[in-house]
Amino acid sequence: MGHVYEMLEMPHYALYYYKQAHRLRASDPRVLLAMGLCYEDLARWEESKKCLKRAIAMKDPEGTAIIRLA
Asked: According to the UniProt entry, where is the signal peptide (predicted)?
């Protein structure tokens, strides 16, 4: 659901569902990456950085988090 809301450019709703997904799969860096991007869309820079750094620490498979932080 988070991805659907992200595609509809509704980051508040997307973030809600990504947080739910993170509770279920806390070890998945892709969820943290998605949360970081939603926070970025909402101009919540500190929360975005925190999520992206955690995704990097969890070995983000695509390396997208490190690119977004740069």
From this structure: none
Question: What's the burial of 14, exposed, middle or buried (CB within 10 Å: 0-12/13-18/19+)?
Answer: buried
Burial 23-50 (b: 16+ CB within 10 A, else e): eeeeeebbbbbbbbbbbbbeebeeebee
Phi then psi dihedrals of residue 62, to 5 deg: -90, -15
Backbone angles phi, psi at 42, to 5 degrees: -90, 5
Topology of domain 2-69 in CATH is: 1.25.40
- For 1-41, the pLDDT digits (tens) are 999 999 999 999 999 999 999 999 999 999 999 999 999 99
